[in-house]
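Bit of a strange request maybe. I'm writing a small parser for structure token strings and I need a real example to test against, not something I typed by hand. Could someone generate the tokens for this chain?
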Amino acid sequence: MMSKVIAICNQKGGVGKTTTAIAMGAVLAELGKKVLLIDVDDSGNPSLSINLGTEEPERSLVDLMLTSYMDRDTTSLLEETILHHGEGMDYIPAENRLGGISEILSASQDEAKKRTVLKRAIAPIRERYEYILLDAAPTLNMMSINLLTAADEIIITTQPQGAAEDGIPALVSSVAQVRQNLNPDLCIKGLLITMLDRRTNYNKEKASTMERAYSDLGMRVFSTRIPRAITAESCMEQHQSILKFDPKGKVAAAYRDLVNEYLSEEA
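Reply from user aminoacidic:
Good idea to test on real output. This should exercise your parser:
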């Protein structure tokens, strides 16, 4: 089975990364795909894990990355760490100690080793899944480099407003550096506009401006745009994806459209 590792990124917070990772995972699982979500948020707020119902996991990405960093095989530990969600996805949770791993890696003198810890940690189970979705922290640090090194593709999520867009140039620069030094096949799959409020002219005009600007720079912008809705926030409290919480709503429909748009190019 060929797997695809997709990182959901933006160094700005509040732009729908976690919602997108969970919703895409749920849609792919709904389509019968084997899906693994990994919480790579080391900011002290492992929202993907919490939103899927795991606040204090017995085993987490922390254990996997420490084991990988010490050059030990992670195969048996992965079996203990991977959890299953009722909507058909597997996931690897994170917890607050993950930020300490970033500090350990940053202090390491082994430049090549410290950038590939995540990639080596998940290598034993990579081919078990068709899609592995990485939910990134809203930062650019050593954990981010690990995430970009482990990924095949990146989807950048952004709200149609200036502040959310500010982090994109630095992220694109990091992608270029990782591609040059560590992961030559890494590509930016596209820019996804999230939390679009079609009731405001500013939001609609900003989305159109962003689409033109990034398309002119050669970056693909997904034609699917994810609308803003209160249900997208409420579903997390129920440990459900938006598909389960509001299956007939506009956000669920948009994420199904997004996955169909994504898969149509994979075929």
